[in-house]
Amino acid sequence: MKLEALQNGIPARIRSVDWSAIAPEEGKRLRALGIDEGAEIQISHRGIFGGKDPIALMIGRMTIAIRRVHAAAMMVDPL
Asked: At 49, which CATH number?
């Protein structure tokens, strides 16, 4: 399933990332933050505006904000 479809609070592992759908500089930043294949993540909450942007993503003890377009490029497996 795509990360954007994952329910809040459900832990998951990133199976794959379509890096071609993400701008190179944004992909580099995401990788530096540990967002890559095999990472265990969880959505803590989503923005309240129309497109539900941004998405607060927990990876380890760190929480980062990603855009919905980034979440759409990631396939995850719920744990």
From this structure: 2.30.30.90
